[in-house]
């Protein structure tokens, strides 16, 4: 690293780009940049602007100030349940699925036999489409034919795991965790492999127990992985959509912010202004995390 | 200082490893239990897809079979046109992956290797873009795509909306961020001497990128390509929003069509799910190393 930095300072200087180089750079940086601005950043700003209008997609755009937000917070019964579900999703992935993935990674990393087998099977759900995960969840949790009720032997008054609006979010969370755990595990496994073994030995020599070594020595060196896992967890929590959409289109206890946005714009109502306001709420929440992450990245970048 | 007695004979890991202790057995039992629990839903889906609806409706999915057949698979392919949807998926994912990798690799090269001013800003722009929730960009894109006319030979809807162009553009635009991030990290780990030698020889920027840097990135590109293909293949939302003609849907989104208006045959849905899942599972089993490398490239930085 230090070698690189010294070289960098040395090399900034006389040699710049030829005309042809500049043309290549212009085209090949210009196209991706344009695409990124048109597909990602432009629409993001447009969403913010549209959220202050009462546009329905056809008539003239009229400015309504913060009316959409006022309606959203006070007058839209699905909003607060959706916020709660998104937070629950975040909490469940962050506090249950992520630590569980870490635990599995640590156990497998200790070099158990059949480690490869465990790793592959636990990882397998990650390659599945979230929509497929949603459909498989229906096979497991269906009231009349589902495997869970059959295992429980509950035939008298079977629980409707996905139909009961108090229960179904938890079942869907289990399905989401099924996929998230393996993802986290793989990231930590790669991180753990890179931890210098002499660190652990040194800690053992100093008389640290295995638990102490892990929490005081190993986990702090995994910081870059922790950051990535944190970002992925947050993003998954905020983006959650496919599973609930596959189960029941996100109704009856499975409302999520993402579902409300989609319903408002591609539904018959086409309340674009209002849908955008919901999207902006999602944006503001995620921006908090994204900015934190970027600040860390920039810091890392400067140290390169 | 006080731990001298311990240091004399620290418990050596390999010696402990060989002995079968209750603790080790416990770990195995636990891992085996978790593995089976993780595998069970998939096996259940396969099992359900082989059985007729009447039978499982009567006895549930968790029962012994009378009849096992591939009828649902035949039905999914003949009646529901799975083949067509697979072709649609390839029409989106193949150009999507190639374009994303090509465009992103040049940006990554410029950011990681050319020491231009503003390269951090560029990197942040792309990386952060990939982290936004998709719903934030859907609405304006939906409106925009509906207003961009295309000639008939490009899109039979005459607009960008309801065409593969729209889905490919969004996939590439959105996934480029992740690719730039991963490839830039990877390129930084490459020895810079090779590039410097090329510069001394007067290689152009294009040659530095295409002839010197890209060939060294082959493992990263393979890993990222595998991963991106799976992601684009698995995507559900973009096609759902930007395509209205049911015949143009990719296979993941088309899965919803197997659900009837009033009655859903879950065994057919199970067969559909298995058909959709199978290619990604095969890709994963064959290219497991690449796949995992792709995911972890982003997190372990040079």
Keywords:
heterodimer, A: 304 residues, MetI-like fold, globular, disordered N terminus, B: 302 residues, mainly alpha, 2 domains, 16 helices, 0% strand
Description of the structure:
The complex is a heterodimer of chains A (304) and B (302). Chain A is mainly α and 304 residues long. Chain A has a domain at 79-254: MetI-like fold, CATH 1.10.3720. Chain A contains 14 helices and no strands. The N and C termini of chain A lie close together (6 Å). The model of chain A is unreliable at 1-14 (pLDDT under 50). The longest helix of chain B is centred in the first third of the chain and has 32 residues, at 82-113. In chain B, helix 6 packs across helix 12 (218-234). Chain B is built from 16 helices and no strands. Chain B folds into 2 domains: 17-73, no CATH class; 80-297, MetI-like (MetI-like fold, Orthogonal Bundle). Chain B is mainly α and 302 residues long. Chain B is flat and about 75 Å long. The chains are: A mainly alpha (304), B mainly alpha (302). The interface between A and B is large, with 115 and 107 residues.
Question: Short description, anyone?
Answer:
The complex is a heterodimer of chains A (304) and B (302). Chain A is mainly α.
Topology overview:
The complex is a heterodimer of chains A (304) and B (302).
Chain A: H1 2-11, H2 19-50, H3 67-75, H4 79-109, H5 115-123, H6 130-141, H7 147-152, H8 168-193, H9 197-205, H10 210-221, H11 223-239, H12 242-248, H13 257-266, H14 272-303
Helix pairs in contact in A: 2-14, 4-8, 4-11, 6-8, 6-12, 8-11, 9-10, 11-14, 13-14
Chain B: H1 4-8, H2 13-18, H3 22-49, H4 53-59, H5 71-78, H6 82-113, H7 119-131, H8 135-147, H9 164-188, H10 192-200, H11 205-216, H12 218-234, H13 237-242, H14 251-254, H15 266-286, H16 288-297
Helix pairs in contact in B: 3-15, 5-15, 6-7, 6-9, 6-12, 7-9, 9-12, 12-16
CATH architectural name of the domain at 79-254 in chain A:
Orthogonal Bundle
User: What spatial form of chain B do the alpha-carbon principal axes imply?
Assistant: flat
Quaternary class: heterodimer
What is the CATH C-level name of the domain at 79-254 in chain A?
A: Mainly Alpha
Query: What is the CATH domain class of the largest domain in chain B?
Result: Mainly Alpha
Rg result of chain B: 25 Å
Note the beta-strand portion of chain B. Answer: under 5%
